[in-house]
Amino acid sequence: MGGAMTGVVNKFFIASLCLLTTPIAVLYSFQSNLFPGSSGMSPEAMTLWSGIVAVISVNVVIGFYIYMAIKEPSGKHEPDPKFLADAKASMKQSSLDRAKQE
Q1: Which of 18, 36, 74, 76 has the highest local Cβ count within 10 Å?
Q2: 49-87: string of b/e by CB count within 10 Å (b at 16+)?
Q3: Backbone φ and ψ of 42, nearest 5°
Q4: 65 near 22, Cβ under 8 Å?
Q5: d(CA 30, CA 37)
Q6: What is the DSSP string of the chain?
């Protein structure tokens, strides 16, 4: 169980890191004229296009994260038996408490 959870945490950490660094890298690239054709733009146009490309890059990272989550095998996620037993006992207790109140 620990290995599966480690994989999930690693994927989440990598996606979070990409969500932070990708738009910053895009904005820096535009301001440093690393994109072809960006050197001839006015400062306003450069700011506009760098913002648009940064937003698109964030959406691409989110899309990849969703894709990885969908492709993950669903058979390896088994609910914890103790958690299920505790949840059923809690549901049964709350329904008994409601019946007593009526």
Answers
A1: 18
A2: bbeebbeebbeebeeebeeeeeeeeeeeeeeeeeeeeee
A3: -70, 160
A4: no
A5: 10
A6: -HHHHHHHHHHHHHHHHHHHHHHHHHHHHHHTT-STTGGGS-HHHHHHHHHHHHHHHHHHHHHHHHHHHHHS-GGG----HHHHHHHHHHHHHHHHHHHHH-
| Segment 68-81 mean pLDDT | 75
Joined together, the tokens standing for residue 22 give: 């990708």
Q: How many CB atoms lie within 10 A of CB 22?
A: 17
The reply to whether the predicted model has a pTM over 0.85 is no
Model pLDDT, residue 54: 92
